[in-house]
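Assemble and predict.
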Amino acid sequence: ARYVNVAIGQLGPVNKEDSRAAVVARLMNLMREAHQLDADLIVYPELALTTFFPRWYIEDESQLDSWCEAAMPGAETQPLFDLARELQVGFCLGYAELSVEQGEKRRFNTSILVDKNGVIVGKYHKVHLPGHREHEPWRAFQHLEKRYFTPGAEFSVFNAFGGRVGMAICNDRRWCETYRVMGLQGVEMVLIGYNTPVHNAPAPEHDDLSLFHNQLSMQAGAYQNGTWVVGVAKAGTEEGVEHIGGSCIIAPSGEVVASCVTKGDEVAIAHCDLDFCQIYKRTTFNFDVHRQPNAYGPITAL
Ligand code: CDT
């Protein structure tokens, strides 16, 4: 068996005024706790270093860029990388990335996979950017990811922690293609951070189902691809907006094996056998034997 002790590093709210240093100190506390529980890897939420700033319409580019990291690690995040190496605990971290290449500035909703030596071994740019592009003042709060971020173009899977590890971010978890594209690359563990407001302005009748839809999507993705899935929330009431918790670790059977019980900073852990993926990958979801891609054309053609 190939085991990975994976920890959820759930965060409670991060407020506008909280410094990066203060948030990194919280992340380090979670990492220390995970280490005491013998974790190999801790997974943090989407946009973990800041408040969820797409809830505001921001016109000032320099203010927008101030929510982003121009370097990773940078001065404020270096201590987290140092602690990872000291404790030999890897991590997955979501943050807003500011990239300038050949004079072109772009922002990405990014997550990175960092190994036990504090080395970045994988990077992912969020593909499914939800929300809207223009200011919609009728909403109680905005969701301007489509305005602020450039979408990613691929789902990659990395050789890390003794297995095949992939990343997705928040809204990605609702799309079956996210898991399947990684499933086709043999993924054994998918790491997903999220910030999910309970209230969905265009469809408020879904508000009561927000935790159910969270778990439904991740359990289906796990089972249908024979992979572990780790879902990690930034939870609680952040700048007046209530976010779901529901962080959990899901086995390739689709069963939840560990979950958080609060909406604050919290660690939960599971002892995950990556070889447990095989019973699903070799039988019901043996893609080579049972998939019918000739019938799936419209998925990419339309
Ligand atoms: N961060 C993120 O992707 N949140 C969305 C909110 C719903 S769409 C406005 C989500 O899918 O959870």
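The longest strand covers residues 90-101.
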